[in-house]
Amino acid sequence: MKRQLLLLTGVALLASCGEGTGPGGGLKNVAVSFATQGTPGTAPQARVERASGSSQASATLILESVELVLREIELKRVETTDCDTATDSDACEKFETGPVLVPLPLDGTVTTQVAIDIPNGTFDEVEFEIHKVSSDGAEDAAFRQAHPDFVDISIRATGTFDGQTFVFETDLDVEQELDLAPPLVVGEDGGSTNVTILVDVDAWFRDGSGAQVNPATGNKGGENESVIKENIKVSIEAFEDEDKDGNR
Prior knowledge:
Elements: E1 6-7, E2 28-36, E3 48-50, E4 59-77, E5 92-96, E6 100-103, E7 114-118, E8 121-130, H1 141-146, E9 155-161, E10 164-170, E11 174-186, E12 192-199, H2 225-233, E13 236-240
C-alpha cells in the first residue's frame, strides 16, 4: 500500500537562467517543485515495512536523505520536437542549465526548486538530465568545487535497512522527458503556477518481484545495480500543480 504523497523541502533555488523571450503577452511565473510518493522517511508515519521474500518475513527501509544532481531543466513548447535539437531560442524555456544539487528532504513540507517568468505558450513536456558529475572538464568545475563528494555520481541516498545504515550511490546519467497531460498553458492572465515533479522513491529499491531490497545492493557492481537504475528511470512524472499539494 502506498503512503500519502509527501511534498519535499529544502533551500529554494530561485534561478532565472535564460529569461523567456517568446511570443508577446503577459509573463507568468512558473515554478518547478518536487514531491515524493510512497517515501520511507524519518517520520514514524512514513516508516515502511514490507514482505521481502521467503528468507525474510519483512524489511524496514527508512530513508534519511535523497539528493539528485540535475541539469538542463526545461519546459518544451508543443510545436518543438526536442529541446536538445531545437534551433529556435524560444522553443524551450530554461529554468536551470548547469548542474544543481536537489535535496529531497523527507519531512513532508513544500519547496520550490526553480522558478522563472515565462511568456505565452503551451508546454507539453518537462525535460531535464539526471547528471553524473564528471571528474574533469569545465562544465562541472564549479559544481565539483562546491560538492567534491559527488564526483562520478548523480544520486545519493542514506538511511537504514532493517536497522543497518547504508549509503546508496549511482552514476546513472540519463535524460528525462516527462509529459505534461494536460499541457501547461501560459496565457494572457499572467499570475503564477507550479509544475510538480513527482518521484516514487519507494519504487526504486525493489527487485523484479516487487520485494524490497537493501539499497546498498544497488551500488556499483551490486547485484541490484541495474534493476535499481531502471526503477529510477521510470519512477518520475510531472504535472501542473498550481496549489502545490502534490496531487493531479
